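Subject: for your reference before the review

Hello V.,

The reviewers asked for a structural picture of the protein, and I figured it would be easier to keep everything in one thread rather than splitting it across files. Below is the amino acid sequence we used in the manuscript, unchanged from the supplementary table.
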Amino acid sequence: MGHNAFFVYPQEALEKYGNEMANKAIGTGPFKLEVFNRDEMVVLRKNENYWAKDEHGNALPYLDAIQTSFVKDKKSELLMFRNGELDMIFTLPLEMYDEVMGSLEKASDERVDFRPQVKPSLTVHYYAFNHRHEAFQYKRVRQAFNMAIDRKSLVNYTLQGKGTPGEYGIVPPVFQSYPYRSLKEPEFNPEAARALLAEAGYPDGRGFPEVTLQTTSGGQNYELVAQVIQQTLKENLNVDLDIRVLTMTEQGEQSEQGASVFWREAWLADYPDPENFLCLFLGEDMEEQSSSYLNTVHYHSDQYDSLYLEGIKELDEKRRYELFAQMDQLIIDDAVVLPLYYEEFTRLLPHYVKGFNQNSMEYRDFTRVWMNHSIDVPVK
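And here is what came back from the structure prediction:
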């Protein structure tokens, strides 16, 4: 019930705005929506009637307004931040990550004009297989693809160390009591991968169906990762892949309709619980459906579903996590998907921005954020 799909809103607003409710945010929060220009700018204005006060009796929020800008080019965004036009940026250009973070390390004994916030996130990036397609209907093929990818190298070199290799199944290694170490990780073993592919009927990749790897665009490193995976699968399995770049909307529609074969996926938790990741692969009622919103890979395992139903009823956290870890191991053993990496969230903030805490879901609470422009910080 804590999911944002259950937020309360006034019935009369729905009756007045209808489908425009998405652009007419109405609530009792610390800020009010003043401007909403999709993909351009959002302005939130302080709610003078907000109910909360801080421990000293001061009315919240502290800020008068917040403007969010949508800058498509990350290099331009970083330049705007350095020029003082932005008070926070989220994620850095991959090719400039080492330069920016390295300059902070070198200046560890001196004050600089900004500070980073880095947090392991509740996000997993993976490649999905369509289990109904001839290329990936057999587990050996999916296992071969998993064993042909060196996740450590992907993170260390392609992602410049930004993230954690996807070696723990589908649940990111963020939950403190979750038994990640008990999982048997997918092994990087090109020789064994080639043997599995041969057992599946494709020795040295011969006769493997034509497959297009679909990835998405938009300021991230998704296209670069796709190129590395394309090259790696060619080198280790002699499998040729075409790459097609789609918008996130196009990719979402195609995967839900069952039209995608091999594609980039990512999941950021809706709420902080392993169940939110494991529910993606429930097979109940999947056999008769041609499309699917969550289980887009069309995985079906009675054992997996049974463990899930037992886990969501279990009240003891230790036992509950053990059941969920068994599901995670099934995802690894059945090569349901190809986990790549678990993301880190990186922000840059000027020193004058205060009270802006970070969390693993990147839910941003501006209620107690304040600015102190009197702080004199020399720029290195």
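For the response letter, the relevant points are probably these. Residues 121-343 form a domain with the Dipeptide-binding Protein; domain 3 fold (CATH 3.10.105.10). The chain has two domains: 1-70, 121-343.

Happy to draft the paragraph if you're swamped.

O.
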